[in-house]
Amino acid sequence: MTSKRILKMNMPEVNLYIVIVGIASIFLLYYNFYIGCLFFIGFLYMVFNNWKTTNIRRKEWTNYIQNLSLDIDETTKKAVMNLPIPLCILEFDGSITWYNGKFNTMIGEDDLLGVNIDNLIKNLNLRKVLNENKEMYTDISYKDREYTIVYNVIKNENGKSAKYLMMLYWIDKTDFLHMQQKYNEEKNAIMLIQVDGYDEVLKSTNEENRPLLSVAIEKELTSLEINSTGALRRTSKDKFFLIMNKKELKKLEVDKFSVLDQIRKIDFGNNLPVTISMGIGIDGDTINENLKLATGALDLALGRGGDQAVVKTKDKFAFYGGKSKAVEKTTKVKSRLIGHALREVILESDHVFIMGHKYPDMDAIGAAIGIYDICKSCNKTANIVLNYANESIEEFIKRIKKSDYYDGVFVDSDYAIRECEKNTVVVVVDTHRPNFTECPQLLDISDKVVVIDHHRRGVDFINDTVLLFHEIYVSSTCEMVTELVQYIEDDVRINKLTAEGLLAGISLDTKNFAFKTGVRTFEAASYLKKSGADTIEVKKLFNSDIKDFITKAEIIKNAKVINHNICLAYTKTESDNINIVIAQAADELLNIKEVEASFVLGRKDDRVFISARSLGNINVHVLMEKLGGGGHRDMAGVQLDTSLEKAYEMVEDTIQTYIKEEE
């Protein structure tokens, strides 16, 4: 190719030769007429021959181009006709003007010309395509096949007029979707299983039946392994590891993890029920990530009381079960270990800040005062962060401020933020949710955060704690702090007012020792009584005025019974202690015959407070969690920034959904 180009560059054009011959013939005519005539005749011949040859080549080239265009048009037509995907051309009114064989095969009918496509296939918004005037896509199902339709508007010009048509390309993606579905269904799901309170359950069983109990648990889990075509391994006496695919996991979710109910039916004379907690990790990028997700899910299941399954992906949780009450642990080993560890953490710091949840109750403020006394026994400076004293704790706060023993104990958030450093210990009591604390900023400033709480664990949790004391079976945070006090030092003594605050917190959360009361609850109360707590003074902390009684009467009057066993009520009366009033009203509604749960709403400062109570059969924690709150199985609540009417509607919808799920 390169040599031809060089040759063409070195050779003059044919026309140049003719010109040279013409000039030469003129010169020769001047010097020699005959020779000049001969050359001139040759010149004329060359001109004629060149014209003739050029004309012939031009015609041949024109014919070649025309034939080539015809060939291209024919090839294009054949390509469109034999296009491996269905294709049709429509008028904008939907009538079919042309279609290829694949489209005919897809529809399965003959003579489709002029037929309106809306009569064949629904949900084709052709007008939208015309308005958008650009290429669009639509996913549609037709005859058990899945298609992506590509719309393309074309302009067909005919003389001075122009006509718009629409081309529809039907891309069949059914096989791709089936493959994608199969890929998703074959993803591995990792399940970590733990028997709740295994040692306590065994102790409650006759010794000769204990092996049978263990075998029965493993038999149920082996049945789960076989039915799910998974692989089960026992990793310790009370822990199991199960791996299955996502398809089988979805079946378990549809079945609401009925294995939880099967395990609960195991009975070999054991006084405590057999329950399991399951943490499942799925949709991680690697198997290791699924294992981490499963570990987090199991921690969450245990933190919510056990007897439930938690499915965790990278961005969401799903909860199943949670029908049993948490089993009280009779041993105080953990309290002793936490007590010693807390003392070491406090001794390593120069300053301690203590805070509970916003709108604190007696359980929060009583526990905070208990931790303050612990810090004082360690000769460390401590402050309780409190921005606002509501009526439920106002009387106790007045008593604290009158005592020189607690001089300067309370500070606001601004002071705490200024004084807090990385080495400062921040103790959070009666909540584990960062946004619920009195001053969330302290959690970001300090590197030493301690959490002491008894509420069922929610999705939002304070992470990176140096010490975590989270026991959901305990009646109250004050009970937990009372046990810690006993293990800080052998000769530790707490102030009389601290003892009364702790006893008031226990009384509040147990409804005067009627709910969630175990052996250790009475032991803690006994210790506080020995420390000087006066039960009469504790009772005075809960006295209310006549307005509160009137408001509670209004709530009871507005009560609505749902499904014969659930009470829903509200009050439009606003007061500073509305959260306490509705909590007391919710307790009162449980005294109604056949009522097993109550929900009461009240409003204060453009915020709606909801208090939920249960006798145990209905898990109000799960219902309040759906609205963004939490608590316990038999006592929970939530705060909503909405109108009272809207909040009432939301609670009623949540109750109705729960009833349908339980049917």
Automatic annotation (TrEMBL):
Cofactor dependence: Mn(2+)
Protein role: Has phosphodiesterase (PDE) activity against cyclic-di-AMP (c-di-AMP).
Identification of the protein by name: Cyclic-di-AMP phosphodiesterase
Keyword Magnesium appears in the UniProt entry: no
GO cellular component, one term: plasma membrane
InterPro entries the record matches: DDH_dom (IPR001667), DHH_sf (IPR038763), DHHA1_dom (IPR003156), GdpP-like_PAS (IPR049553), GdpP/PdeA (IPR014528), GGDEF_dom (IPR000160), Oligoribo/pAp-PDE_c-di-AMP_PDE (IPR051319)
Alphabetical list of PROSITE patterns matching this protein: GGDEF
Stated family: Belongs to the GdpP/PdeA phosphodiesterase family.
Cofactor: record remark: For phosphodiesterase activity, probably binds 2 Mn(2+) per subunit.
Top-rank taxon, per record: Bacteria
Sequence positions that bind Mn(2+) 1: H357, D361, D430
One function term, GO molecular function aspect: cyclic-di-AMP phosphodiesterase activity
Membrane topology, as annotated: Multi-pass membrane protein
Enzyme Commission code(s) on record: 3.1.4.-
Residues annotated as binding Mn(2+) 2: D363, D430, H454, D509
Membrane spanning residue stretches: 16-48
Record localization: Cell membrane
Domain GGDEF per the UniProt entry, residue ranges: 186-314
PANTHER family given in the database record: BIFUNCTIONAL OLIGORIBONUCLEASE AND PAP PHOSPHATASE NRNA (PTHR47618), CYCLIC-DI-AMP PHOSPHODIESTERASE GDPP (PTHR47618:SF2)
Reactions the enzyme catalyzes: 3',3'-c-di-AMP + H2O = 5'-O-phosphonoadenylyl-(3'->5')-adenosine + H(+)
Keywords in alphabetical order: Cell membrane, Hydrolase, Ligase, Manganese, Membrane, Metal-binding, Transmembrane, Transmembrane helix
